[in-house]
Specification:
Elements (H helix, E strand, L loop, with lengths): L1 H26 L4 H26 L12 H54 L1
Helix pairs in contact: 2-3
């Protein structure tokens, strides 16, 4: 049993280090990882929205509908999470990721142009 807790401790430490590293990279100005994370986050949220809609229309439930109030509450929770929470965040993350990608592309084009002009000045 102790080996399980030791293993769990190391998993938690590694997961924490990964999250902290991603947060640092995410907050760097002009970081390419920011656009990538927005795209991944957006796709994940769209997937969660789809899963919650499928859960609502599927005949399988975590709590059977024959139990009064509780049976419908899990469907209502899935609907609220899917439509009200996940979908708007997915749309926002997708738009933000596209905006960051366009900004990074234009910054790269500007840097290329400046390098070319600098090279021309050196050659002249």
């Amino acid at each position: 049993m102790e080996s399980f807790w030791e293993f769990s401790k190391w998993i938690l430490i590694c997961f924490t280090i990964i999250i902290i590293t991603l947060l640092i990279l995410f907050n760097l100005k002009d970081s390419g990882i920011k656009a990538f994370l927005y795209k991944v986050f957006s796709k994940s949220l769209f997937a969660l929205t789809g899963i919650s809609v499928l859960y609502i229309i599927s005949p399988l439930d975590l709590i059977p509908d024959v139990i009064p109030l509780l049976g419908q509450s899990d469907d209502a929770l899935a609907l609220i999470l899917g439509i009200v929470v996940f979908l708007p965040f997915a749309i926002f993350a997708g738009l933000e990721g596209k905006k960051i990608s366009k900004t990074l592309e234009s910054a790269n084009e500007l840097a290329k142009t400046l390098r070319q002009k600098h090279q021309q000045l050196i050659e002249d």
